[in-house]
Write a structure and sequence with these properties.
Length: 102
């Protein structure tokens, strides 16, 4: 039988146990501002199309829209929800001691 593991910390997620799906979506934002193109707009479009030919379509797509799904344990779900950019400097030890079995 395949063992399911938390994609955050690698901890085993037993069958029937508590686990979470974390969905991550990101998409390009547009603030409505268009910079005026210096020169002929037709040339600009041709340049853009030429540049796009050299880029992998998947990379191009991910520049605009990206979606990821992760299966994680409660600790990783809580940690992600609390500090998605790892900038609060919280201590893993103090938090892990609260509700985890080892
Ligand atoms: Zn985890």
């Amino acid at each position: 039988m395949t063992v399911l593991r938390c994609q955050g910390c690698g901890r085993e997620l037993p069958r029937g146990g508590l686990k979470y799906i974390v969905e991550l979506k990101s998409f390009a934002d547009f603030d409505g501002y268009l910079e005026e193109y210096p020169g002929d707009i037709e040339d600009g479009i041709d340049e853009l199309l030429d540049a796009m030919e050299d880029v992998d379509p998947n990379t191009l797509e991910e520049d605009v829209y990206m979606e990821r799904t992760y299966v994680v344990c409660k600790l990783c779900r809580d940690r992600f929800a609390r500090d998605p950019f790892h900038d609060s400097g919280y201590e893993e030890g103090e938090y892990a001691a609260k509700g985890t079995l080892h």
